[in-house]
Amino acid sequence: MKVFFTKKFRNSEYEILFNEINGFEITRGINGKQDPFSLELPSLLDIGIMGSCKNHCKFCYQGDYSEPDMKLDDFKSIIDQTKHHVNQVALGGRGDPNKHKHFKEIVEYCRKNKVVPNYTTSGVNLTDEEIEISRMCGAVGVSDYGMDFTYSAISRLTNKGIKVSIHIIYTRDNHDKIIKILKGDDVWNGKVNNNYSVLFLLFKPQGRGKNLDWLPTSAQIQQFSKLIFRPNTDFMVGIDSCLVNKVLTFEQPNRIQKISIDTCESSRCSGYITPDMKMMPCSFADKDKFSVDINNDIYSIWNSSNVFKKFRKTLRIDPKKCPLF
């Protein structure tokens, strides 16, 4: 099958080729240069458009911050500054991005500027209008709360042909469930169809969950690692880069898988912007320690701020070390 690209970026050292339809992206060195360790701007930008959440989940890594949602003009400013290099944005923050009062305008502005919007939702009170808007998104993540609203959201979205990824936080207590998923068991008992993928996210003891003893044990991660690169599933599975760091201690991917995963990409290929326009290398970082006010251009922050430089320095020395600790 011939691969085509709808968006291209090129400088003297690397090029990025991107397909807005299926999300396929290639980043490679040119002019005799190696594939880049870091980019001159992110290709993926995590944007926290939501400032507060009513759920107050005890494991929420965002903590107890509460502030107004991101202004539409601020969001447009981010896109205007980065659209030539950013291919995808992950809409997030504290709460469900689909509840932002300018959700439709945000998604439309992304598409207008050849940036693919994606978001993650709990699925609570998902409306028909929000589902229609979601058809403009590349994919929608639905967090697995194990509740009826979870399964309803997944079914309603997939029935409209929208790509859905079920997001599962990997903790010590749900390890057995995750192993069953990887072995091919239907842990959802037929409540969802097979038109989805599953993404496993390592639990981070940050924010409200900083004192929770939920991290998987070394033995659990070892068992998980043996299955993740050879799952017996009818759907695609994936892991976040924090979990990649753990898995690579025990197992190595095959040649194809190796080019599809990466260790921590924060400050290298991705960054996070808070609802009040502060930029950080990672959404799991402490806002008071690792944020930079966007009172000048994003390019300067990404390339010149000490916060981002320190993150990159840490990752150059040890790609599997988390710069936050």
How would you explain this protein's 3D organization?
The protein has three domains: about 1-35, no CATH class; about 40-120 and about 265-325, TIM Barrel (Alpha-Beta Barrel); about 125-265, no CATH class. Helices cover about 30% and strands about 20% of the residues. The chain has helices at about 70-80, 105-110, 130-135, 150-160, 175-180, 220-230, 240-245, 255-260, 285-290, 300-305, 305-315; strands at about 5-10, 15-20, 25-30, 45-50, 90-95, 115-120, 140-145, 165-170, 195-200, 235-240, 270-275, 280, 290-295. Helix 5 links the parallel strand 8 and strand 9. The chain is globular. The mean pLDDT is about 95.
Name its key features.
single chain; 325 residues; alpha/beta; TIM Barrel; 3 domains; 10-stranded mixed beta sheet; 3-stranded antiparallel beta sheet; 11 helices; globular
Shape: globular
Largest sheet: 10 strands, mixed
Q: Which architecture of the largest domain would the CATH scheme give at its second level?
A: Alpha-Beta Barrel
User: What topology, given as strand order, has the largest sheet?
Assistant: 10-9-8-7-6-5-4-11-12-13
CATH topology of the largest domain: TIM Barrel
Low-confidence stretches are none
Number of continuous helical runs: 11
Question: What is the CATH class designation of the largest domain?
Answer: Alpha Beta
What percentage of the residues does DSSP assign to strands (E)?
15-25%
Number of strands: 13
The name of the CATH superfamily of the largest domain reads: Aldolase class I
Radius of gyration: 19 Å
Helix content: 25-40%
Give the helix/strand class. Answer: alpha/beta
